[in-house]
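Forwarding these from the shared drive since the link keeps breaking.
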Amino acid sequence: MQTFLDANRKRKVLAVDDEIINLEIISEILANSYEVVFAYNGKEAMDLLSDPEADYSLVLLDLMMPVMDGFEVIRLMRADVRLRKFPIIVMTSDKAAEVRSLRMGAADFITKPYDMPEVVLARCQAIIELSEDRSIIRSTERDPLTGLYSKDYFFVYIRRFLPQLTGDMDALVLDFDRFNIVNELLGREEGNRILKQTAELINTIILQSRGIACRTDGDIFYVYCERREDYESCIKEIQDTLNRESPSHSLRLRAGLYQPATGDRVPEAWFDRAKTACDRLRDRYNHCVGYYSRELYERFIYEEKLIADIDEAIAQHQLLVYYQPKYDIRGDKPVLTSAEALVRWDHTELGFISPGDFIPLFESNGLIRKIDRFVWRESAAQIRRIKDIYHVNLPVSVNVSRINFFDPELEDVLLSVIRDYDLQPRELILEITESAYANDEAHIDEVIADLRSKGFRIGMDDFGTGYSSLNMLTEMPIDILKLDMKFIRNMLVDEKSRKLIELVLDIARFLNVPVVAEGVEEEPQYLMLKEMGLDIIQGYYFSAPLPADEFERLIEKSIDSDTINQGII
């Protein structure tokens, strides 16, 4: 493949000296081979080096200077991850200073005065070549599997020749969904064959004659290519070719695109943004290319703030637990029988944040464990308060996110919560979503069985979302089924939804477990569910989720009107 990069571009050298005559001499020696930039003291040098776009092949550094001396520049550069890659040659006549500067990290020294210009030039060339060679050696130039560039060399190559590029270029990230399944089921050899074929298709379909690509992190590819109008067709062509030659795999390829703007010259940032756009497609199967936009950037910044603020939110009780009542409708009149704990976030700067914003985010990065543990303790404290004030036993159901089932401390944490508030395990109902069983079903069943043996009751939330088979349902160690609310929404107009509810009720009676319907908002829904023989209802028809004080007032009214039934579920 022909390259669009020019290996003859002049490297840039930063010369730092407070003596103008010395800088003029250096310029005379190096100007034909290098682009020379001047700084007159250490502070000016650090200002130039601190520019994120700074790309110097060498720093020539005097030691004795006003404002900031050369030793301090060496120290600062070696302490900075980005700046430590720039080699330093010290310019001095002090032998003792030479030794000190070399120990601090300088690559070489040139003795003043500069009596032999050809020696100065040769030593500069040698250090630059050595530094570049080491950079490339640290990251082998080519990926041995695909023949594409390695990730590190890919960025070295782009950054070094960025000033030479003309025309609009794009950053593209390609990634497979669940590629590990290929390796696990068909073997690594078959997985490697697909990766090699993908690299070939990237070369022929996307790059053609202008651009470069690398493979990084297993099954992820970075592509720097000439801008085109239609990337969807390119990705689809690669996808179709892979599926045609490997029809049993059903691989899904997705891509993220970032289009650098004028003056946007940090390649690593381009591909971070393209990767963000790519990751957003993980569960969106109707698109194969995601485009990084201002909205996506703002969303990213917003989510990063939520992540940064979660510990403070928990410590300062910005997280609030609301309680949505559940009513037993099997008798002549509905009676309050339990509640579900739901978390809300009253952010000091952003106001009320929708759970739809932060719950999926924290589920994806594991921070949901912190929220779950907070909610468990708050709910236990509320159960204890209700028992002490109103002398009623009203269980509360709490969510246990899937990641908790892989925490070896889960059982100890839950038992600690129960002990701290002097409760019985059955008073804190543990809800797990049906989709949590999608992988590692045997492990989750084992954890649930242990929790049940300690007295906890387990509810399956969102039942009917499509994962469970009837056979698996009979084997799950659960105590309560909660119907997914989409069936409730559609039951008045969709016969299939009604039939499914009836089927679930029949199965639940066979298994001898109660069924909860959430999302009940209208009286016709309530009446139909009661006629079907459903057990428990939760939804706005009876009550919205309530803050703790309002929930307690509801309990008072229920006691006064004798519409409370303690501890049935």
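-- next protein --
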Amino acid sequence: MNREQKAENNDQRTKVVLLAIIILAAFLRFYKLGQIPPSLDWDEVSLAYNAKSLLQTGKDEFGHSWPLSIQSFNDYKPPVYTYLLIPVLKVFGNTEFAVRFPSALAGTLAVLVTYFLVKELLLQAERRTLNLECRASPTRNAQRTTCIALISSFLLAVSPWHLQFSHIAFEANIGLFFFIAGMWLLIRAFHKNSQWSIFFSVAFMSIAMMSYHSLRLVAPLLILATLLIYRKNIWDLIRPGPPAGGPGLYWIPLILSVILTILTILTISYTVFFQKVGQSRFKATSFLTIYNLLTVNRDRLEKYGNNPVDKIINIKYFVYAKQYIKGYLDHFDLRFWFLDGDRIDRHRTPDVGLLYWWELPFLVMGLISLMSSTGLMASKEKAVLWIWFLVAPTASALTGGTPSAVRSLVFLPTFQIFTALGIVFVLRHLRKFWVIGLLGYLVIGLFEVSHYFHQYYIHSSLEYASAWQYGYKQMVDNVMADKDNYKKILITTSYDQPYIYFLWYGNYDPKIWINDGEFNKRFDKFEFKKIDRLEMSNFENTLFVGTPLEIPAGNLKWRVDYPNSQAAFLETEHL
């Protein structure tokens, strides 16, 4: 068999393996998509209702026509996920599956794009190896590159971190797909002097930054760093090509890229500075909200304020800098990666970290291999990957709840790429003993992966149902069935934002019901407040829906239980 036939056979095998990985990724992301997590949380419902409103009226729930940002509760959300939901709701209807469909699809496509990203990152090293080693086998080098790319994609396909956010309607997961695609196209543009790759990279990056707040800091930092790394390639990219292509056609993608970049900057600037988008979220989540953050320093200034050194050391900006560094370093905690995961129950699986323990040795070896002079990756691509890894938590570090798995989701797929490099590096050096080591690690790996899926599909719904606001759908169905029998209906706010569930599950027509900013307090027959048992007798012909602490145990009409049989909502009446 000649070299061309071998290469063709290898390509066919690669396509089959890649297809299998994509099918696996799709299965894991779409399996029980509407049932696990066990219910839609209020952010998911808000995205869904606003998409429904835009589909039917061209306006969001507050009456804004095709907004650049989506008003949600006391905050504004980037618009991409909501707009992606519009055609999905049209096709699949108002279902939980439909609400999470864009995220599951983006998660699946991210696995595919990761393959192309890794191939591009390894391309220059493959070429350099062929140039330096006259006896090097092109087929062997191509196989090694393909192997690393396939392993990276597979690891992302089964990653607990990525699966967690591909199974829920989170803007961060949508943004991650567009970000990975944008980075692949950006590097490809420099490798192949492709002007159209630059344009599509700009397009994907623009969508990424309009998808999630954190990417508005991380994406520009990594883009600027990449441009600096490839600064010598920029001239080759922008200078006119052969006359046959026509100078006008040559400049079209570059001109479009500049226009799109300017439009993106203007759009984000307008929403941030004029619509205050993201500012309310930053005020609510930044480390500036940490209780007593400045107390110690204020006390020192009051006691030792006459000392000029104390005035310098204890100023608030030093405290802020220290807190930011702490928040940044929190994201490199091994407990966060491998043991505890995120501190918020909606962002984690019980007793499972964000990464598998069996990946740790390979992750370490991958990092070591990148630090060495190994030919697995060229210097420029190494620099890009390192900077990506280091800037990933820069936005999340600004918040008070560190480490955060969702705000640092852009770490992915660097962990998987490092681990894949480590696996190939180890297999190259183990030689005679690699079969025994591989079999041992397969057993460990299968056990840990099985444990993760058991915890996710069984225990998450049992243990974290309350974190997902389980019970609202059942409660709304019961209330709407009895709605006409009462003059007023009081709904507890102990679980927060009940109004959006009534708009969504109550099938209220957005053409008629436009949120005037008071829907979180009352609309239609509903009033949303914490229920006081002592005041219940003051209401006539009223239905009360509250928590077990608010509603008396006797004379209940019905109750909604969590999957673990604990009560979520109780309903009683006063006629």
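Residues 132-136 have pLDDT under 50 and may be disordered. The CA atoms of residues 165 and 173 lie 6 Å apart.

- D.
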